Give the backbone structure.
Amino acid sequence: MSATVTARHARAARPATGSTLTGLGRLIALALRRDRIRLPVWVVVLTVSIGYMPAALEMAYPDEVDRLARVNLMKNPAGIMFAGPMFGKNETALGAMVANEAMLTFIVAASILAILTVVRHTRAEEESGTAELVLAAPVGRHARTVAAILLLAGVNAVLAVTLTAATAATGLPVVDSAAMSLGITGVAMVFGATAAVTAQLWRTSRAATGAALGALAAAVVVRGVGDVINHSGSVVSWLSPVAWAQQMRAFVEVRWWPLALLVLLTVVLLGAAAVLERSREYDTGTLPAGGDRPGAPPIRGVFGLQLVLQRGQLIGWSVGLFLGGLTFGSLTQAMLDIAEENELVAAMLAAHGNAGIFTTMTQFLAAATTAFIAITVLRLRSDEQSGLAEPVLAGSVSRWQWLLSTVAATLLGAATLLFFAGLGNGLGAGIALGDPGTVGELVLSALAHLPAMAVMTGIAALAFALRMNWIAWLTVTFVIVSLYMGALLRVPQWLLDLSPVTRIKVPMETSVTTMVVMVLIGAALTA
């Protein structure tokens, strides 16, 4: 507290001289030091993943017949929402398949990295009080935001080079590889700039991150709806910057002018962020925070507090998983048809139990829920660091009660997400198969994964206790990668079974004993 007060007095006493970018170089160096492990890991993972995509697709679809079947599968509305537009040229060429199959995934991943990076070095520093000490030195008003954007620009420049090199190394054309990589990183810069704006609008890093991620989700949905209207892109598609990158048409007929739109939008958003930053006071947001509403209802108990803190994320994740489930479910009949002709696809479905397609879809949705669990439980660590936990623990609240309330609220949130994911999955599959009974079956099948979520919650709680957040995220990564790549990589079944999500089969083929053991493991890890 004394350091904070001293910093405020120092900043107040300092005359308003010098450039608004004073101290920019040192701030960039500080940001690089803080992220010296985090950013390289992201770059390596994304580069290796995109380099593996051509080989994975060639293995899954070895000949023209298989590739044509895949193209026809992706031409339905759900496939276009989940992947990208179909331009009617070179559709079975490996490069076009890579762009259509992978580009949206990498756009979302790179954009999430951009949002987290910008908020981490701007709003999160104000929230934690770190920026107080920085601003006690000669630092310009816009230096912190500009440093975050320049850091992001450097990361995206490196990423563009590595993604291009990894893709071209598989034998695909260099120019097309560069077009796809620049499209990916161009969209990431747009949403990094979006995060710079939301960091000025909202007082908390959680709200700023959520708003930027919400904008990303809206852009993905708008692009999907527009491409469903017209497989090559409609007027609606062009309302989303995600579509601008895909409309560069890598590996089909490259055109560069959509990249200029991404650059222009980034500049406009950065200009808006600069104006907002100039007009607001330190540690405030342009928009009022929840604590600024004196008429808000009181929060009752620590458990109630956790529910309130999770409310915004829970709503966003519920909508996302419902739409994801609806998309997966609508693909049911198409996936069953292609599995009859493609041995690898049939193996991927059969690897998860007798129910094949239902098991696979439900496990993918449950795997996504594990990321929500890691985020909500590990937030306890950031609350400790920012000082938000102090007012809670200063009362008659033990650390046990604090942790267990978070675990309980997280499990309730996970159950809510599983319900909406199963509901969307069931509705999509029921419509595709003409079987209304599928809705109830897939809702129950999704909720059957709650014991697996208990294990994941226990692992996240243990990671928090050990101050090793990477344990939780490594587990989440293993769960997701084992589902996506397990069959392609010919991973042994015993290794896949280490994932708690793959232990649950659909419909309800998992024994009660297995579920009880999972719950006990989760409780033990939490304890």
Observations:
- The longest helix spans residues 399-433.
- Residues 1-17 have pLDDT under 50 and may be disordered.
